[in-house]
Amino acid sequence: MRGISFFRVGLFFSMFFLFSSSCFNKQDNDITKPNVPEYVLSGSTLDYVTGEPVPNTQLRIQSVAMLYDISFPTRTITSDSMGNYTIDPVYPGSYAIQIVKDDCLLKPIPIQIEHENRELSLDVPQILYGNQFPHSISYDWNGTFQMIDSSHPYFAMIGSKGLLLTRFYNNGTFIGFYFVTTDHKLTGWHYDTLTEIDFDPSDIWQLEVGRDHYYAIKYPDSLMIFDRWASQLQQTIATGIVMQDIAYNPYDKALYACTDSLLYRLENNTYNATLIAELPQAGMSAMTWNDDKLYLLRKYEDLVYQLNKQIQIEKIYAVANFSDNAVWNNIYDIYFDSSDRFWGTVR
What we know:
By secondary structure, the protein is mainly β. It contains one helix and 30 strands.
């Protein structure tokens, strides 16, 4: 009997162990995570203007927020000889994809992957290398160390010199001149006091240098005209258009103005606004002439559009530092000096 009892007890524990193991395995199966769906992101790298394929373009993609609990390491791929690319797999969520152009890492493009494959064509701009104008500069004024600060990140250039409306921290308003050296630096600062100042410099929207005058936009639609040699305000004219910028073209010796979508010529002497053309893109915020071509800044894209005399887009540029290839963001104003070097301000 005792032997039978031990047998029964042993059988009971064996059955309990098997039953418990089965239950635990069933619980393990119940908490198994579902498979993460995989999709494919594909498309082409195309020239921003012509739409032609841009082969062998490097792309960098990284995750921003994944819908599932999965890691997606940053990947770098290159489009093929026809400009086609494929990223496989990708998972539902938010990503940022960046174009690498001439060793410059362009602004991230946000993309979303839903529960399906995604096709995405990427427009590839050219690279325009430039130099950033400083927001402030130290200056020895009568032996006293001062800091000059721009009331706005707007400036103008003529030849190898530039112009900036500035304010001392203590008092006064000045027209500041700088000279550009061959190694893309600024030197030789000099300041002249503006006479007959009856305006708030914070209202100045843009600046330009013409043959005999300085010009400034007093927001929103007034053109301020200064004598270039005496730094004296001569007159203020209401143009009737909300100007984004003004630009002097030395080839036809005329001053132009643009709204965010229209180009005007401000006639000599009268400065009446004559409509020239509708711009190819809306949203323009700054412009300048160089080599008889019009350059327009589309501010929120941080792209510079090169237009011919027929106001047609020839090239579209992203801007990068001349010194280190860092791409510019939040660009406010653009100019070329007499050596065709590009300058700009950023905030």
